Amino acid sequence: MRLDRLNPVWALIVLSSFFIFVLGYKGQTATQAYIVYTYFLNITVSSYFIFSDPRPYSLNKIFWLFNFSFFAFIPVCQYELKVIPWGNNINDGTYLTANIIIFLSFIVYKGVNYFFSAKTAGIAAPADSYSQNYQLKFNNLGRIIFILSCVGMVIILGQNIWIRGSDVSSAGDTNSTVALLVEQMLRGCILYYTLVAIILFRRRQLKTFWFAMTMLASFLVNFPLSTARFYIASYYISLWVAYDPRLLRKRHGFSYVFLSLLMLLFPFIGLARYGFTKMNYLLEDPLAVFRNSFLAGDFDTYTSFCRTIQYVGDYGTTAGKQLLTVFLFFVPRSVWPGKAVGSGAFIYGQMRYEFTNISCPFIAEGYINFGFAGSMIFIAFLAWLVAVYDNFYWRAKTISAILPINYNAIYYCVFLGLLFFMLRGDLLFSFSVITGLYTAGYLFHKYLSVKISLK
User: Fold this and answer.
1) What is the pTM of this model?
2) E strand or H helix at 327, and its extent?
3) d(C-alpha 62, C-alpha 385), whole Å
4) Number of neighbours of residue 164 by Cβ within 10 angstroms
5) How many CB atoms are located within 10 Å of the residue 28 CB?
6) How buried is residue 342: exposed, middle or buried, by Cβ count under 10 Å (0-12/13-18/19+)?
7) Fewer CB within 10 Å: N-end or C-end of the chain?
C-alpha cells in the first residue's frame, strides 16, 4: 500500500477512531480491551476497502459501507457508552466473539470477491448480453400499466400516502403474504418504468412532457415519508444512478453522500412512522433524535448478531429451517402452518420481547441456520454474487455511457439499495422484496422490449 495513495478521509477516520476509542478507552478487564481493539480493527479494514474500490459506486462499496456503519463505528459507540439496543444483557465474551467472526468474514469476503472479480474481469460478454439490438416501446398500453400500478399503490397506501403515520402500510406486514406480493409487484412495475423513462430521456428518445408526468406520478407514490426507509433508499439511489450526474462519476462521491445521508437523514426519516403530531414533538429536540436513533432500534443490527450468537450457544442452530422459509416465502401460512417467522422476530420472540419487528443481519442468518460455518458460507456466496454482478454492470457501462436496454443492468441500480437492506435483514422479508421487485420489473421489461434489426 503506497502512502501517496492513502485517501485522506480514510486516514482521518482511522486516526480519529484510534484517539477516541482506543486511547480514550477506560476498561476494567483484558477482554474489554480486546473488544475495543477488534472494533478498531474492523473500522480500519472496512473503511479502507470503501475507499480502495476504484469504481465510483458498486455493490462491493455497499458491502463495506454497511460493515463500517453497522458492524464497526456505531457498535463501538454503543459499547463505550454502555447503551445497547433492546437491553444490556450481552456479555463481553459474546461481543468479542462477534467481532472476531465479523473480521473473519471480511477475510473470506475479500478473498472470494478478489478471486471471482479477477476471474470474470476479462470475460467477453455474449453478443446480446447488453441488448444493443433492443429498443423499448413506450406505447399507450405500457403507460396504462404504469398508471394502474400507481393507482393500486394509492389504494394500498390510503391515508399513509404522505406519511407512514400509524405504520399500517402493508410494506411492513410480513404476515400477509398475498398483500406483500401484490405491493411488491406494483412497486416493481412503477420503479422499472421510471428507470426506463430516465434512460430514454437521457437518450432523447422520450419527450419532456411524458418524462415529467412519469416522474411526478412515480414521486407521488414514493414520497420520502410515506413508506419504509429501505425502499425509499433503494428507489432514490436507483434514480440517481440511472440519471448518472457528474457527482456520481467522481471516485468517492457516492460514498460521501451515502454515509452523510445514513448518519444525518436516516434517523429523521424514521420519525415518519409516528405521524405528524408526535413527529413535530420529537423534532423539538434534534439531538435526542440522533441519540435515540444511534443507541436504539435503528442501529440494532450488531446487537441482533450478538443475540443470535447467544441463542445458538444456548439452543443450537435451526438446521436450515429459517433458510427454507426464505426460499418458500410465497407459501401462505394457511397452507404451511409451520412456516417460520423472520429470524429477528424469532430470536427476540424466544427472549419474550413483545416488540419483534427487529433486524437480523445477513451474517447472523447464516449463523442461526448452520453456525459459524453457515456465516462464512453465506458471506462467500455474497462475495461471488457481488463480484460477478459488479463486473457485468461495469462492462455494460464501458460499452454504453448511458445504460443499455438490458434488464439486469437496469436492475443493478435498484439492487444497490436492496443489498444494504438485505445485509441489515432480516432475510425473509428482504428476499421477498428483492424477488418481487425483480419479477415484476422483468415481466414489464419483456412486454416493453422489442428486438430490432441492426444493419
Assistant:
1) 0.88
2) helix 321-327
3) 13
4) 26
5) 8
6) buried
7) C
